[in-house]
Amino acid sequence: MNKVLFVCLGNICRSPMAEAIFKNYVFRLGLKEYFEIDSAGTAAYHIGSKPDKRTIEVVQNKSMEIKHLARQIVLSDFTSYEYIFAMDTNNLAVLKNLYPLNGTAKLFLMRKFDPNANGSLIVPDPYYGTLEDFQKVYEILDSATARIFEGYKPGDSLLTEQELDFFKS
């Protein structure tokens, strides 16, 4: 079982969108039994809230479902999840500071997987932007997710040892 967690600041824009996109890939590829997927935020701003209405609109316009209530990351996430994908370097720094001694999760920047990143490591936060900004975030996350699934075979680890070394944050 590949356990995957996506993390941004408040868990209402980028990370629930990444969760929805990833779940859609898993569903389309018939891999539901091989994955557990969730998202969380590093801050407690929106605990219990639904995703931003623009996140919901963008995801639903792509014929995907989004069912999530915001939550904050907890220490047990570092042992419960195998892969944690941070949306930007600030959230990655918070994750590294919180990382417990018994942590086993592998931390990555989501944008490292985006073949169109052109050197950028940040999935931009669209919260103060427009619907178009949310659509751009969707494209980034979709591109990165497609790359993550390249070559994946059911029952395998999501990332090979070579990829783990190459994409390590």
Gyration radius from CA atoms, angstroms: 15 Å
Number of strands: 4
At the first level of CATH, what is the class?
A: Alpha Beta
How much of the sequence lies in strands comes to 5-15%
Number of domains: 1
What portion of residues is helical?
Answer: 25-40%
What is the mean predicted local confidence, pLDDT? 94
CATH topology (fold) name: Rossmann fold
The CATH superfamily name is Response regulator
Overall 3D geometry?
A: globular
Class of secondary structure makeup: alpha/beta
Lay out the secondary structure.
Elements: E1 2-8, H1 14-28, E2 35-41, H2 53-61, H3 77-80, E3 83-86, H4 89-98, E4 106-109, H5 131-149, H6 161-167
Parallel strand pairs: 1-2, 1-3, 3-4
Protein traits:
single chain; 169 residues; alpha/beta; Rossmann fold; four-stranded parallel beta sheet; 6 helices; 38% helix; 13% strand; globular
Give a structural overview.
The chain has 169 residues and is of the alpha/beta class. Helix content is 38%, strand content 13%. It has 6 helices and 4 strands, in the order βαβααβαβαα. A 4-stranded parallel β-sheet has the order 2-1-3-4, with helices on both faces. α1 (14-28) crosses α5 and α2 (53-61) packs across α5. The model has no long low-confidence stretch (mean pLDDT 94).
